[in-house]
Design goal:
Layout: E1 2-6, E2 9-13, E3 17-19, E4 22-25, H1 30-48, H2 52-65, H3 70-82, H4 86-96, H5 104-116, H6 120-131, H7 139-152, H8 156-169, H9 174-186, H10 190-203, H11 208-220, H12 224-237, H13 242-254
Antiparallel strand pairs: 1-2, 3-4
Length: about 260
């Protein structure tokens, strides 16, 4: 058994090894797998309830029983990411990538983390790896991340190409509509941007970032009352968010 260390915590990666007597150890027993999967499901529940410490404790039980499973490392990374511990999340994803059959969903989630770290080229190449898997059933997510990375790099035509591909696969994907709206807005195509932002809101009514983007373009178009309505909606949806803080400032400027 081989060990890798994350700071003071250890995460084990399973290896098979041979001796002169033949195969000694290769893979978990059925009992260990059952225990690991049970802890995995419990960790998912704790993560959904934002009980991050309990979630981490459970997923580490999974790794104790079945070291090296990329799904378990992926969930550990998501737990770290939810806490803003991006360096630790990156380490967990890289541990997941040690598996030669890493699921494409892991690659797409890792590309999301790379976007947060502003590692746009790495995000593109990682999401493209997921698209190479012909069995991957959610290519829209990979195309959305690639499109956002190109948007951040100011490569607007490539961003639009991938975001449109995402919508070809999944027409009701709100992030793709929103990001495509940002591409249009940066290109000065405000009418198209407004349509995209409204479609993002239609597919996800509780989407404060899309309302902010919509309001800003409406201001550019001189449609102040519509912009005011959008800013007010942001405050209703997420009153304690940074989006709401920015919206209140904009509303003060719009008040005679």
């Amino acid at each position: 058994m081989k060990h890798t260390r994350f700071r003071k915590r250890s995460i084990r990666i399973a290896t098979c090894f041979m001796s002169a007597w033949g195969l000694i150890s290769c893979g978990p027993s059925q009992e260990h797998r059952i225990r690991a999967d049970n802890s995995y499901r419990t960790a998912q529940q704790y993560l959904g309830g934002q009980s991050y410490l309990l979630a981490e404790q459970e997923i580490r039980k999974s790794l104790d029983n079945v070291p090296g499973d990329p799904r378990y490392f992926e969930l550990l990374a998501l737990i770290y990411q939810a806490q803003g511990r991006l360096k630790h999340a990156d380490e967990a994803y890289r541990a997941a990538l040690q598996d030669k059959d890493v699921p494409p969903s892991v690659l797409v989630n890792y590309s999301s983390l790379l976007l947060l770290q502003e590692r746009y080229d790495d995000a593109i190449s990682t999401a493209q790896r997921a698209l190479q898997d012909t069995d991957y059933d959610k290519p829209a997510l990979a195309h959305t991340n690639i499109g956002l990375a190109y948007l951040k790099k100011a490569s607007l035509s490539q961003a639009a190409e991938h975001l449109r591909s995402a919508l070809d696969y999944q027409p009701a994907l709100p992030e793709a509509h929103h990001n495509l709206g940002l591409v249009y807005a940066r290109s000065g195509e405000y009418n198209e941007a407004i349509l995209s932002f409204r479609e993002a809101i239609r597919t996800r009514p509780s989407y404060p970032e899309a309302y902010v983007s919509l309001a800003q373009v409406l201001l550019e178009e001189g449609r102040h009352q519509e912009a005011r309505n959008a800013f007010e909606r942001v405050i209703d949806l997420a009153p304690d968010s940074n989006f709401a803080i920015a919206s209140r400032r904009q509303l003060q400027r719009l008040t005679p």
